[in-house]
Automatic annotation (TrEMBL):
<dbReference type="InterPro" id="IPR036291">
    <property type="entry name" value="NAD(P)-bd_dom_sf"/>
</dbReference>
<feature type="binding site">
    <location>
        <position position="286"/>
    </location>
    <ligand>
        <name>NAD(+)</name>
    </ligand>
</feature>
<feature type="binding site">
    <location>
        <position position="158"/>
    </location>
    <ligand>
        <name>NAD(+)</name>
    </ligand>
</feature>
<dbReference type="GO" id="GO:0006065">
    <property type="term" value="P:UDP-glucuronate biosynthetic process"/>
</dbReference>
<dbReference type="Pfam" id="PF03721">
    <property type="entry name" value="UDPG_MGDP_dh_N"/>
</dbReference>
<dbReference type="GO" id="GO:0003979">
    <property type="term" value="F:UDP-glucose 6-dehydrogenase activity"/>
</dbReference>
<dbReference type="Pfam" id="PF03720">
    <property type="entry name" value="UDPG_MGDP_dh_C"/>
</dbReference>
<feature type="binding site">
    <location>
        <position position="34"/>
    </location>
    <ligand>
        <name>NAD(+)</name>
    </ligand>
</feature>
<keyword id="KW-0520">NAD</keyword>
<dbReference type="InterPro" id="IPR014026">
    <property type="entry name" value="UDP-Glc/GDP-Man_DH_dimer"/>
</dbReference>
<feature type="binding site">
    <location>
        <position position="89"/>
    </location>
    <ligand>
        <name>NAD(+)</name>
    </ligand>
</feature>
<dbReference type="InterPro" id="IPR028357">
    <property type="entry name" value="UDPglc_DH_bac"/>
</dbReference>
<feature type="binding site">
    <location>
        <position position="350"/>
    </location>
    <ligand>
        <name>NAD(+)</name>
    </ligand>
</feature>
<feature type="active site" description="Nucleophile">
    <location>
        <position position="283"/>
    </location>
</feature>
<dbReference type="InterPro" id="IPR017476">
    <property type="entry name" value="UDP-Glc/GDP-Man"/>
</dbReference>
<feature type="binding site">
    <location>
        <position position="227"/>
    </location>
    <ligand>
        <name>substrate</name>
    </ligand>
</feature>
<feature type="binding site">
    <location>
        <position position="343"/>
    </location>
    <ligand>
        <name>substrate</name>
    </ligand>
</feature>
Length: 459
């Protein structure tokens, strides 16, 4: 029987909340802390506040039993052996990660340490953050042998966060102390031993994968770099295929065929070779900027990342040009928009390229009827409905009487629309798809003018 650890998770957002219920699912006892009282009482009452598959079930299963929610970090620190910091590390004006939330939490933990604690960086942080956390805790009067700081970066993706957490490709534990590494190994033992996957009601993996993940022990600094390097590399892959898709458009080649041909090379692999309107979300943009900034500060030339960012920015402008090319002029055009979240199956709109495009279209004088299965409420807080912006209840309502329909987010349900009904709803049967969700020939067969990314227009 694996040991049950008393775990505190500080920050109950996309990462912290998912980590908390998943640790409970793995058998541990968890205190989930947030300084947002409204959030804590909603979670205590069973409201997840975010859209994430399996989260409501797990919250229901463990809420107020194996997972308790509170605002009191001092109490959580006293009760728990391992304290995971999962607060935000947003981009600052200079491009660096803003670590003020992490620092505030580290200092607060320090003031309540009365026995040995393992303090875990779960948030994405730049290299050397573990040393700053250690210094902050020591400055608050805690003896060096009373705590260790380890890095355990999180690789979950929104939309499949719970499955990703419980079925990770790898678990990275960066620790410079054997004692702390052993605590982390114990926490993850239900996964690394494979025991969790024998449970009858185990949460299934994102692609039906059920293999026990490897746990990689590294130095703390290596682990910090692994997370930034992984996200930066994925962003490189996206910008690379976007640049290739632009070349395909210039030559009438088909980026889908090119991606298949590239991906069959085992060194390249087929995943993350889908062109679109550019990456967004709360991680890639800020993590690429932070990694570039770390390299700059250390005198290392990583200008590759500036190019990645440049291509990413251009991709949205290219999409806007596609709309312009399809409709001639934009002022006064009525557009249906499908998707507002930064990717499908999540309500997260942080750095969403879809919303940036809606803003660009409104600035061009278009009027927009937008639909998103989960992100409309959040978007309306940022972009309130008005004479030129309406939020509607279905994809067909967005298409109703529109001059064209734009697909901006890859929600699975947007790939399964009734094309006949869509055609009837649209004023002109023009679909401009920034996510390549449809087969161009099928669209033409349904009478649509269909424009996508990096693929020739079918006739
Ligand atoms: P989030 O904004 O959803 O959640 C952060 C939470 O921390 C909020 O609920 C906030 O109220 C709370 N918080 C802030 N200061 C606090 C304090 N002093 N005490 C207690 N709570 C406090 O952020 P997120 O998306 O969960 O990301 C958290 C970290 O994980 C970031 O570093 C991010 O880069 C990283 N990460 C995110 C993802 C993702 O897909 N969202 C994936 C991997 C890693």
């Amino acid at each position: 029987m694996p040991k049950q650890t008393q775990i505190a998770v500080v920050g109950s957002g996309y990462v912290g909340l998912v980590a908390a219920v998943c640790f409970a699912e793995m058998g541990h006892n968890v205190i989930c802390v947030d300084n947002d009282e409204r959030k804590v009482s909603a979670l205590q009452g069973g409201d997840t506040l975010i859209h994430e598959i399996y989260l409501p079930e797990l919250l229901q299963r463990y809420r107020n039993t194996k997972v308790r929610f509170m605002t009191d970090l001092a109490e959580a620190t006293r009760e728990c052996e391992a304290i995971f910091i999962a607060v935000g590390t947003p981009q600052s004006e200079t491009g660096d990660a803003d670590l003020s939330y992490v620092e505030a939490v580290a200092c607060e933990i320090a003031r309540s340490i009365t026995s040995y604690k393992v303090i875990v960086e779960k948030s994405t942080v730049p290299v050397y953050t573990n040393e700053w956390i250690r210094r902050a805790i020591e400055r608050n009067g805690v003896a060096r042998d009373m705590f260790d700081v380890v890095s355990n970066p999180e690789f979950l993706r929104e939309g499949t966060a719970v499955s990703d957490f419980l079925h990770p490709d790898r678990i990275v534990v960066g620790a410079d102390s054997d004692r702390a590494a052993a605590v982390l190994r114990e926490i993850y033992a239900p996964l690394t031993s494979g025991e969790y996957y024998t449970k009858e009601d185990a949460i299934p993996g994102p692609c039906g994968v059920n293999a026990a993940p490897p746990l990689l022990n590294t130095s703390t600094k290596s682990a910090e770099i692994i997370k930034h390097a992984s996200n930066a590399f994925l962003a490189v892959k996206i910008s690379f295929i976007n640049a290739v898709s632009n070349l395909c458009e210039a030559t009438d080649a088909n980026v889908e065929q090119v991606a298949i041909g590239m991906g069959l090379d085992a060194r390249i692999g087929p995943r993350f070779l889908r062109p679109g309107i550019g990456y967004g979300g709360s991680c890639f943009p800020k993590d690429v900027a932070a990694f570039r900034s770390v390299a700059d500060q250390l005198g290392v030339d990583f200008s590759l990342l500036s190019e990645v960012e440049k291509i990413n920015g251009q991709q949205k402008k290219r999409f806007l040009n596609k709309v312009r090319t399809a409709l001639w002029t934009l002022r006064g055009k009525k557009l249906g928009v499908l998707g507002l979240s930064f990717k499908g199956e999540t309500d997260d709109i942080r750095e969403s390229p879809a919303i940036e495009l809606v803003e660009m279209l409104l600035a061009e004088g278009c009027s927009v009827k937008a639909f998103d299965p989960a992100a409309m409420e959040r978007t309306a807080e940022r972009l309130p409905a008005g004479p030129n912006l309406e939020y509607v209840e279905s994809s067909y309502a967005a298409a109703d009487d529109a001059d064209a329909l734009l697909i901006l987010t890859d929600w699975a349900e947007f790939a399964k629309l009734d094309l006949k009904r869509l055609n009837t709803a649209l004023r002109y049967p023009i679909v401009i798809d920034g996510r390549n969700l449809y087969d161009p020939h099928a669209m033409v067969e349904h009478g649509m003018t269909y424009i996508s990314v990096g693929r020739p227009t079918a006739n």
